[in-house]
Design brief:
alpha+beta; Tetrahydropterin Synthase, Chain A; four-stranded antiparallel beta sheet; 9 strands
Length: 335
């Protein structure tokens, strides 16, 4: 009504209010009444925004790669950008132009410019596996860009989400990678089998070494037993020899003793024989009757015995001889 309008902006918008070409008021989140015919309002958004980008580059091996990502930025100097781009709004607070879209396109251009020389200096396989390096390179290039500085922008971050080859090359790489992976898998299987065979060989060799060691120990034990038996037999032999020698020595001593005893007995016998012979020598030529008569123990029994002897010597001349039992009994009983 009457051409007067009330406008209110949020705190993330920096507002410049002009009247008749003169700046009357500026600041964040302003609210005021305006006259539609004479007011000019510039509203610069300060909130951060994300710009999606996607572009193609050629690597040093003449392969196409597609770089896709996102740039996060915000306007840090509203005055600078308002001098370069048109952020005016109408009486309803709606933008009159689409200059804000120019910011996104310029950031994408700067990102591509920053990555072009870097990507062109590496092979395709390296480019698609070094998204982090490309991301850092784009951030550095865009942050230091003269265009970005003139626009009063602050680059908050760059994220490269993918670096992809062409579909044909992706399939070729997939095939090559698949073959390499298969080869690596085969090599891994071979190494596992080789390791298993090696371990089995080591186990068998250990078992054989153990058996050899056991056999060697058993051999040593057998040799020790044989050595011990040999020593025992040798000791037994030595003991038997010592015992035999001792027996021989004892027998020799005994033989000497027996010889001495025999010699002594012979000497004693010779002495007795000589003594007896010497004692009987005077009676050697005497008649036995005289010797019997010299017996001091003469008795009737001895006399009868002599008589019987005489009879016996002259038995061939005796025709009859009568000896009564009474006579014999008397001789026997006589003391």
């Amino acid at each position: 009504m009457l051409g007067i309008k009330y406008l209110k902006f949020d705190p993330t918008t920096y507002v410049f209010r002009y009247k008749k070409g003169q700046l009357k008021e500026e600041g964040k989140g302003l609210s005021f009444f305006i006259i539609k015919r004479t007011a000019s309002i510039v509203a610069v958004p300060l909130a951060s925004k994300d710009v999606q980008f996607i572009f193609s580059e050629t690597t040093n091996d003449f392969q196409q790669v597609t770089v896709q990502g996102r740039i996060t930025y915000k306007i840090s100097d509203p005055k600078k950008i308002s001098d370069v781009l048109d952020f005016t709004v109408n009486a309803d607070g709606l933008r009159k132009t689409k200059d804000e879209e120019k910011i996104e396109q310029r950031l994408v251009n700067e990102a591509q410019t920053a990555s072009t020389s870097f990507i062109q200096g590496m092979p395709m396989t390296q480019a698609i596996t070094n998204a982090k390096l490309i991301q850092n390179k784009i951030f550095e290039g865009v942050s230091n860009s003269e265009t970005v500085n003139l626009l009063g922008l602050q680059i908050m971050g760059v994220n490269v989400t993918s670096v992809k080859p062409t579909p044909e090359m992706a399939r070729a790489l997939e095939t090559s990678t698949r073959e390499k992976l298969q080869q690596q898998a085969d090599e891994a299987i071979y190494l596992r089998r080789k390791f298993a065979v090696e371990q089995e060989r080591i186990i068998k060799e250990t078992e054989l070494n153990t058996e050899i060691a056991v056999e060697e120990k058993q051999k040593q034990i057998s040799e020790k037993k044989m050595e011990r038996q040999r020593l025992e037999e040798q000791n037994n032999k030595t003991i038997r020899l010592m015992k035999t020698e001792a027996d021989i020595e004892v027998e020799q001593k005994r033989k000497i003793l027996i010889d001495i005893k025999i010699e002594n007995e012979n000497k004693l016998s010779d002495s007795l024989r000589y003594k007896i012979s010497s004692q009987l020598e005077p009676y050697k030529d005497l008649d036995w009757r005289i010797i019997a008569a010299l017996n001091t123990k003469s008795s009737a029994k001895n006399d009868i015995a002599i008589a019987f002897r005489e009879l016996a010597q002259n038995a061939q001349n005796i025709q009859n001889l009568n000896i009564t039992p009474d006579l014999l009994n008397s001789l026997i009983e006589q003391k």
